[in-house]
Amino acid sequence: MSHRPDRRQICRVIARLGVFTIMLLGAGNSFARPNLTPLGPNIADRGSAYYHFTVRQFDSADGRRHYKVWTAIPDKAPPASGYPLLYLLDGNAAMDKLSDDLLRQLSAGTPPVLVAVGYQTDLPFDQLARTYDYTPAHWRDRQNRGGREGGGSAAFRQLLTQTIAPQVEKGLPIDAQRRGLWGHSYGGLLVLDSFLSAPSFNDYFAASPSVAQDDFVLLKRLGAVTKDEAKGRRLHLLEGDGDLPRPGEEHRPDALAAVRVAVAELSDNGVGVTWQLFPGLRHGEMFPASLRSALLQMAEVQ
């Protein structure tokens, strides 16, 4: 029988993690600096023995952000219910991590249609655009590190669900009960925000979401979600523990504790939630590891 943490315990954990937030914002630690080496050809350029690809371009409503969206369609015939579907945030970097061996593994099960939502750049990440697109509305009134503007998740989600999705899914046999969204770091924040705000998907994969930089606002809200509110939706939280301090280092509160509390709250509320720990993996290493895990889960081969 699971133990439900009391509210005082939750408050103590969150309060301690507030100190961790300040440390993260001031220290400029390694996982805050992604690799921005220009990318070479990806699997769509090289070709696959198991999938075929289309590419589309979109613009934000205000004309300030420009998107490149890859759609990967299995060559294997769909089941009677249609293909599963998984949207991938940070699509440039996600496409760079896809290999034909991984697509072969997906094809051994029920391969999902993949929609990688990236930006019109040769870099793995468009830092200005993703900061705005992936962060929730309460970020509008503050300046992020580097002066990057935030708070545009609602506008991005509207573009994703009302413009991008209808176009990329048109004519494809999609299982309406198996639509997923995956994101890492700021993308993981967008996934949490979408789980709370938008019933457009069934499976929400939040990998190493930047909950500390969000002052734990979204994580606090998760614990109040009820079974009825989350009907038809499942949340998957994926975390590595490689960024925890080593013995002898200055003590830092364990950010994973807040995630565990949120998972316990959701589980006790009857909400479909899973938590997967990747021992030893650091923040950046969680990008490919969590992507692979989400893909295999959607294909039902893990």
From TrEMBL:
Q: Please provide, alphabetically and separated by semicolons, the GO molecular function terms listed in this UniProt record.
A: hydrolase activity, acting on ester bonds
Specify the superkingdom. Answer: Bacteria
Mind listing the UniProt keywords for this protein, alphabetically?
Hydrolase
What Gene3D superfamilies does the record point to? Answer: alpha/beta hydrolase
Q: Where is the signal peptide?
A: none
> Has the keyword Hydrolase been applied to this entry?
yes
Q: Among its keywords, does the record have Hydrolase? A: yes
Family, as annotated: Belongs to the esterase D family.
Q: What is this protein called?
A: Salmochelin siderophore protein IroE
Organism from which the protein derives: Pantoea coffeiphila
